[in-house]
Amino acid sequence: MPPSAAASDAKRPLVLAAVLLCMIFILIYILITFPRPLITVVTVPPTTPTVTTSESAVVEDDNDEKATALSDDPYRFADQPFHRHHIPNIVRPSLYQVQLKLYLPWRPGVTFGALDFTLDGMTRMEFIVRQATRRIQLNVKHLNITAVRLYNSTEEIHVDEISEDFPQLLDIFSSMDLLPERNYSLTLEFRAKINNPKYAGIFTAPYKHGSENRYKTATHLQPQEARSLFPCIDSPEAKARFEATIIHPEGTYALFNMKETNISTKGGWTTTTFLRSPIMSTYLFAMVVGTMPYRETYTARGVRIRIYAEAEKLNDTSLALSLTPRLLAFFEDYFQLPYPLEKLGELISMDSLIRIDR
Asked: Which of 241, 264, 290 is the last residue of a domain?
């Protein structure tokens, strides 16, 4: 009796599996018995090595140099938040000559129209560079830069670009390399406001003079507010000497860290120039314009001491006036160092105590 169709269908997978298994064993036997390649290997003759042309080598070298230059670029972090207020130690200032003209409506009836509570300034910075560069970077804050001029010891150097792409940084790019150990100077003109309500940088403050409401202008540049008064490298390690010329309304006086060398008045303006300061950090720059009276005394070594205060408070400065010379003498003896300046002054106001001399 022939097998049924259902039984044949059930055995078919087993037959296929047995046939496949036999084929695998046969293939293994052939590979072991006849160890010859079943696939012809085509031998390809070695190709001629690629010769790099001098032009491509130059391109590769240029790329390497650019990569190295990029990794060594001291300004590469300038656009990063943690680095925005720090300037690489490449430009080294030696002298700042600062001229400030203050439009201060110091008493009722004195006004300069739209210029009230503003200043026009000019700064000349003498410097050298530690390595060849075309980039000069300064700190600025709320300053409107109106002119920039760069000089070497003999002539003016063209400035290619001026930018303020990063907060509180002014970038100046020269048309030629600035070389180490050569003398350069940079002159900048600018305008700024002087009515900072936070008593930081340069600010104005009201005070009473009899029945009049008057204004004085003063500075508080710690820790990094010199940049709001004039363009500079506003880092404590970037020390330099300072010369100040202050142009202020007739009827007011100007104070600086150093003694006055000349005072002249013309056309409603008084120009006061001062001695050059010792080497110091930018935040120690201090100035005042006002009309507050003072009391004066001298130490045994001839250091002039003045205490400035509002007229109705002047008699309250007796203790400060008597103690200051004694304290100064004590610290000179304790540290065995003489006080280095010719004067020391303090301006006492209802809003702050301002040190005029450092």
From this structure: 290
